[in-house]
Design goal:
The chain is of the alpha/beta class. The chain has a single domain, classed as Rossmann fold, CATH 3.40.50. The protein has seven helices and seven strands. Strands 3-2-1-4-5-6-7 form a seven-stranded parallel sheet, sandwiched between helices. It binds NADP nicotinamide-adenine-dinucleotide phosphate. NADP nicotinamide-adenine-dinucleotide phosphate binds next to helix 1, strand 2, helix 4 and helix 6.
């Protein structure tokens, strides 16, 4: 659908696969303007084609502050400050007890899951603050509020996302929101790497996005600072 006069401007990171891709397409179907990013050129090109040239997905690594800043400048020039900014890009570690996790893998997760969120917020927030409206949703998980064996690095970074987002919520002016969001359990590459064959028991990203997109569009300053969980998707 072509964006109409009530279209929201939505920015999502990690749109090449999984939840981010499904959300981008669903927001587009609902008539909103969507910008996104990921690291894989082929997947970015494929998504732009699938969105019929109406969305803007580009290759940006969220761990690189300069690339994120350049991307944000272009998004802001084109669509103005986002009404909804979703920090979705993320990675999980290979199963291992914490003391066997290679330092480089631990660092890589920290860079994407925490520094990535920080880079994106730093790049988009000044324009959102100047306008005084906008909702920031940072992807959390059940592993962001309790511990789990074998995915300690992932839990660590998602607990950091919860703390980051709740602190940001304390700093934002009235009318804005920062919300840590648990999407539930969805059949994506990330879930397959964690659950193996059991991932197939869970909803596909497309089915999930039909419920998640309207839910996210309804969030407002009322929910700022609350850890929210999407109701179960059948
Ligand atoms: N699936 C679930 O059940 C579930 C449950 C709870 C929370 N979550 C959270 O939801 C979010 C999405 O998860 P998912 O399951 O959709 O994961 P996924 O299928 O592995 O997709 C991850 C996305 O993040 C992008 N990404 C990773 N590193 C990036 C980087 N450095 N820069 C830019 N983009 C990057 C990937 O694209 P490229 O590889 O092209 O860069 C991909 O588009 C994550 O934050 C995850 O923690 C998922």
């Amino acid at each position: 659908m072509e964006p109409g006069p009530d279209a929201k401007s939505i920015v999502i990171t990690g749109t090449t696969r999984g939840l981010g891709r499904a959300l981008a397409l669903e927001f587009g179907r609902l008539g909103h303007r969507v910008s996104g990013c990921g690291r894989s050129t082929d997947e970015v090109d494929g998504l732009n084609r699938e969105a019929g040239g109406r969305q803007h997905h580009v290759v940006v690594n969220v761990t690189d502050p300069q690339s994120v800043a350049d991307w944000a400048r272009k998004c802001l020039e084109r669509d103005g400050p986002p009404d909804l900014l979703i920090n979705n890009a993320g990675m999980i570690n290979r199963h291992a007890p914490l003391w066997k996790v290679p330092l480089e893998e631990f660092r890589a997760l920290w860079e994407v899951n925490v520094i990535g969120v920080f880079n994106v917020c730093r790049a988009f927030l000044p324009a959102m603050l100047e306008r005084g409206t906008g909702v920031i949703v940072n992807m959390s998980t059940g592993a962001g509020v309790r511990g789990f064996a074998s995915i300690g690095p992932y839990c660590t970074t998602k607990h950091a996302v919860e703390g980051f987002t709740k602190s940001l919520a304390e700093e934002l002016p009235e009318g804005m929101a920062a919300i840590p969001f648990q999407p539930g359990v969805v059949q994506t590459d990330m879930l397959r790497s964690h659950y193996g064959e059991r991932a197939a028991d869970h909803p596909t990203p497309d089915r999930w996005a039909k419920v998640a997109a309207p839910y996210l569009l309804n969030l407002s300053s009322r929910e700022s600072g609350q850890s929210l969980r999407l109701p179960a998707v059948k």
